[in-house]
Amino acid sequence: MSNSAMSVVILAAGKGTRMYSDLPKVLHTLAGKPMVQHVIDAANDLGACAVHLVYGHGGDLLRQTLHEDNLNWVLQAEQLGTGHAMQQAAPFFNDDEDILMLYGDVPLISVETLQRLRAAKPQGGIGLLTVKLDDPTGYGRITRENGQVTGIVEHKDASEAQRQIQEINTGILIAGGADLKRWLAKLTNNNAQGEYYITDIIAMAHQEGHQIVAVHPQRLSEVEGVNNRLPACAPGARLPGGAGGKAAAGGRDAARSGAFRSARYAAARARCRDRY
Q: Which domain of life is it from (predicted)?
């Protein structure tokens, strides 16, 4: 397990056209609070030194709604892909820290799964969260050689043989700050979408001889994004896991006290005092 300090990047720039609402996608509520707040809470529970929130659409509303002290607001003026989003945050990365990449519209990711991912990250390599689906249509496929992860091929760029692969990329990963900055600088948009894919760094790491370790979440529901206004997103809806508003994904209490949050934040900042 890496002993490095860690910061988190949360991608939250998407408009969410399938939500049929002018409200930024990540501000739609789940269990009484914005989706992105669940992700921020997870980052703080992990002891993140800083949380870099990459925003675009609805930035003013996001700023009015979210009041975490350790948020670093990073503008992505044009949405040119996940790699491009990470490039906007890269100037804030410290070389000797780990960077965990999360998504503002994937609110059920558990702290336990993220802790296992962080523990699995190899020195100089990447920890990658993957799942296996019966129908992986539309998702990036994990390519392997002799059991070792070698890359990710997006669905539109995949061959027929690669489209038979059932292991897919969730988009969540962790890598060292210096390595990540080096790989991000090499990204191109030479692909079917004309975008900068963060997934291209997997092949870069492999080509440099670094290991990519795949970890699976405890539950598939942890990595399901919210792409439409499901009933579960209504104000007052409960997270999976029964009474009390606790999420099956990590057992996070939707009504966790401000005092507890403040204590978590203070502890994280004490560990990272000299870094930001």
A: Bacteria
pLDDT given at position 267: 58
Q: What is the C-alpha radius of gyration for the chain, rounded to an integer number of angstroms?
A: 18
Domain ranges of the chain: 6-271
Residues with active-site annotation: 18
Angstrom distances, CA of residue 67 to CA of 40, 51, 71, 266: 11, 12, 8, 15
Instruction: Classify domain 6-271 at the CATH topology level.
Output: Spore Coat Polysaccharide Biosynthesis Protein SpsA; Chain A (3.90.550)
Cβ(61)–Cβ(23) below 8 Å: yes
pLDDT at 239: 38
3-state class (DSSP) for residue 254: coil
- Compare 274 and 70 and report the one with higher pLDDT: 70
Query: pTM for the full model?
Result: 0.84
- In 29-147, DSSP assigns E strands to 29-30, 33-34, 51-55, 71-75, 98-103, 126-132, 141-145
Query: H-helix or E-strand containing 178?
Result: helix 177-184
Q: Helices H, strands E: what count in the chain?
A: 7, 11
